[in-house]
Amino acid sequence: MKTNIITYLQTYGQETFSERAFSEVDALILCQFSYLKFDGIIPRMPGWPAGNGGQDEIQAVGAKNAGRAQDMVTILDIWRNPNRERMFYDTRFEEENRALAEQMLLSKRFQNARFGLFLDFIDDKEQVQFSTLTCVLEDGSVKIIYRGTDESLVGWREDMDMAFTYPIPGQEYSGRYLELAAGCLKGPLDILGHSKGGNLAVYAAMNASQSVQDRINTIYNMDGPGFKKGVCSLELFAKIEPKIVKIIPRSSLVGMILENYGGYRVVDSSAVGPLQHFACSWVVEGREFAYLQKVDEGQRIFNDAIREWLDRLTEEEQRAFVDTLFEILEESGAADLIEFSQDYRHCITRMLNAVQNQDAAKRKQAVRVIRLLFQISGEMFKSEAQDWILEKLEK
Prior knowledge:
Strand order of the largest sheet: 1-2-3-4-5-6-7-8-11
Number of helices: 16
Mean pLDDT: 83
Order of helices and strands: HHHEHHHEEEHHEHHEHEEEEEHHHHH
Structural class: alpha/beta
Oligomer: single chain
Distance between the termini: 38 Å
Low-confidence stretches: none
Shape: globular
Radius of gyration: 22 Å
């Protein structure tokens, strides 16, 4: 049987961090834990700056909050909270999330970890879904954890905006949060995130003040997307690149989209296709991930096609396509993906009606953009197949 982060805790959870150092598997556990709904359960970041939160305001709030580590709770405190069941609102992954939280509670490894400085908000106007929290382990090390995309449509819209906008509001918020959290707590820092959270972790670290960067040991980017073209060549990025540990599943789509940097490791997954993005599908062998040599070949070709497709579209075309797509999704009437899945027949009917109601110019443009993606994908698969045949013939 293939094991995952839950069975890892069952087997090795009694080893404290003084007995065995924090690992990549532990980082993924905290990333998945961050997806739980902690409003009213984990203490919030006090004095979060209003508006854009300039550097002076951030420094002022950081000074005011210095030493607020006592405003944090343990896993046991979380479990005893009368609002505990709210954590498992996302019914898509309720079983795995509940099992993970229970194993963290039972393990010596996370039993005495403290959690706080929680933030979670959605802004339809800014098109941002942002959530983060901080964990202080028993050894005093500080883990800043950025949540990835949740079930909200705003969160998915924000992901697509990354293709033509830099920085997006969520990235700017991640930088503000890191400065504030680092000001509240002493000790070495690790920055963590899964999916969009991995992208936010990298952005926050590369834009951090020098004093904060000097405290960062590792930036864990778990299958997070890249950046708009040109960002990875910036000097800001080059400064923190050696600290980045990027891990992707063997059929990664999210983690390989947009412009990426060179180094990453590939982990095996028990799931198929896009479902490999789910952290609980990543295979653990002993105390480490089951690493592979490379991503699946078919997925690599498709990822290359996605990047070329985005490169061929102008920024105006990218923006118009995303606008049209989400106009149609919003017509479903569902507030989030959970509502959509609960009444998907009705939602899809409303979406199909919305397609018919789009004006002719929008429909024509959307069809052209989608056709271009299929054309590029076909060309790439054909080219790769020809190369493969020629290679076999030469042998």
